[in-house]
Amino acid sequence: MFPTRHAVQRYQQRVAPVAAAEAFRRLSELADNSRTRATPRWWTPVEPAPGLLFAYPANEPGVCLLLRDGAILTVFERGQCRAWATADAMSQPPHGRRAQRRNPYRRPSAGSRELRAA
């Protein structure tokens, strides 16, 4: 995986204030030692999209790397994502966490709907 300049800057801002070369090295190492998945963890503020992968390194449990086409696009840190979520919640009227979830689709059972003639 190849870190982009943006990913290096975000690593320096969100994870550790180190030199750019060190951030580049750490990002490459984190990407090599991480599990990738197509769906984000609950704390990651990004919606899944085609071609977008989420990498979660075992040795940095609070870090998420966004990957696409062999490149590390950006970096998220769990504590900062929580702060963003708290700030968003304070700017919106309180609804509770359950109010934001959609009900899953349930296929109607056979014969439960009446067919009407045209």
Structural features, described:
By secondary structure, this protein is an alpha+beta fold. The protein has a single domain (about 1-90), classed as Nuclear Transport Factor 2, Chain: A (Roll), CATH 3.10.450. The chain has helices at about 5-15, 20-30, 80-90, and strands spanning about 1-5, 35, 55, 65-70, 70-75. Helix 1 (about 5-15) crosses helix 2.
Strand arrangement within the widest β-sheet reads 1-5-4-3-2
CATH architecture: Roll
Distance between the termini: 58 Å
**Fraction in beta strands:** 15-25%
What count of domains describes the coordinates? 1
Overall average pLDDT: 80
Number of strands: 5
Number of helices: 3
State the low-pLDDT regions, or none. Answer: none
Question: Which outline best applies?
Answer: elongated
Helix fraction bin: 25-40%
**What is the third-level CATH name, the topology?**
Nuclear Transport Factor 2, Chain: A
CATH class group: Alpha Beta
Helix-strand category: alpha+beta
Region (Disordered): 86-118
Biased composition (Basic residues): 95-105
